[in-house]
Amino acid sequence: MEAQLKISRAVTNLAFNNPFFGSCLMQLKLEERADVPTMATNGTHVYWGRDFVDSISEEEVRFVLAHEVMHVILKHCQKFEGKDPQLCNVAMDYVINPQLLDAGFSMVEGALYDKSGKFHNMAWEEVYRCLDDLKNDREPPVDLSLGNKNDIKNDIANSTDHLEQSASGSASEIADASDKIDDMVIRAATAQEMSGKGGMPHGVRERIKSIREHQVNWAEKLELLVKAKYPEDFTFAKPNRRHLGSGLYLPTMDGHKAGPIAIAVDTSGSVSTEELTLFISEINNIINDIRPEKVYLMSADCQVADVVEYDSDHYFEDFNAVGGGGTSFVPVFDHVEKENLQIDQLIYFSDMYVYDSDFPEKHPDYPVIFCSSRNEREVPFGDLIKIKV
């Protein structure tokens, strides 16, 4: 099979059967390069050598592509100054390959693998210290047999470096590159979770957990929650232009079209003009991101004061904040039910200074997101996002 076709088929197979890795590959650039003996990555590209791809099976191509993705999402291409790059690469491979095997991949012949299993659950930096000790005839902190030591020394001697460290840049440029990788990981994780297909290495699960708990800011959390209703899929209807120049005909990621949504804005007396400005800004971002079929925009305090219908092309510059009384969420949910509004979800912007009795007793059967500009309280249903003014 011709090498480019083999790459295309492998990526497509991953897209449908292991969407996490398929999604990541769709967001990276795949490029043939004559000076790459196997495959390599610099964090934004995956480079492949024609002779190498010709020499292995399509199943093995999938493994090596997933291997390069792992280097990217674990940020192995960032600068590791003061260390031996080749030794770093060996340490990273010892950590990655067992995880891919556990996730159901078939390892390509010659891939680095620690048969002792001592390195499988270690961070690559810990493995590096052990390898550095062995290379310099020091006793490593890990208890290894003589046979293990000889195998590892042989791996070090015969390994080739397939990582390119990212180019130097300003602190903001480096942070931006790191954020883009995190965004790619979250998008891919969402695709995998919605499909229920494919295995996910434990190192990937830990990265996803870390990003979601500590690194995703409120705007990203809101975006992810809003878009969760509309999972990304793969389609050949519009080929991926990024790869056409390389002769690769690959599918694009295509979000499911958003249906009608309801957006409620708390216009009670406690909500400031500054908060209303923030709410409208986020409403515009949401509409621009998901392009809903219709938007029911409601002004509400202790009653629904105004309801206006818009299509997805509307942009809000001014907002008629009708209201000014106390706050209750009940009227908005009652209005949706009374008017039989068929909505995909409801997003409610408020300062969240409410009592438990201000929530409806009957929980809706559509997703609800409360966006709070001030009070961070528990909600009886839906999700709460604390946004910052």
Biggest sheet: strand arrangement: 8-7-6-9-10-11
Q: What is the count of DSSP helices, taking H or I runs of 4+ residues?
A: 13
- Please write the string of helix (H) and strand (E) elements: HHEEEHHHHHHHHEHEEHEEHEEE
- Let me know the number of strands: 11
Terminal residue distance:
57 Å
What proportion strand? 5-15%
Structure classification: alpha/beta
Approximately how much helix is present in the residues?
A: 40-55%
Give the uncertain stretches in residue-range form: none
Outline the fold blueprint.
Layout: H1 3-17, H2 19-27, E1 29-32, E2 39-41, E3 45-48, H3 50-55, H4 58-73, H5 85-102, H6 124-135, H7 146-158, H8 171-195, H9 202-215, H10 218-227, E4 232-235, H11 241-244, E5 252-255, E6 261-266, H12 273-290, E7 295-300, E8 304-310, H13 330-338, E9 346-350, E10 368-372, E11 383-386
Parallel strand pairs: 1-3, 6-7, 6-9, 9-10, 10-11
Antiparallel strand pairs: 2-3, 4-5, 7-8
Helix pairs in contact: 1-2, 1-4, 2-8, 4-5, 5-6, 8-9, 10-12
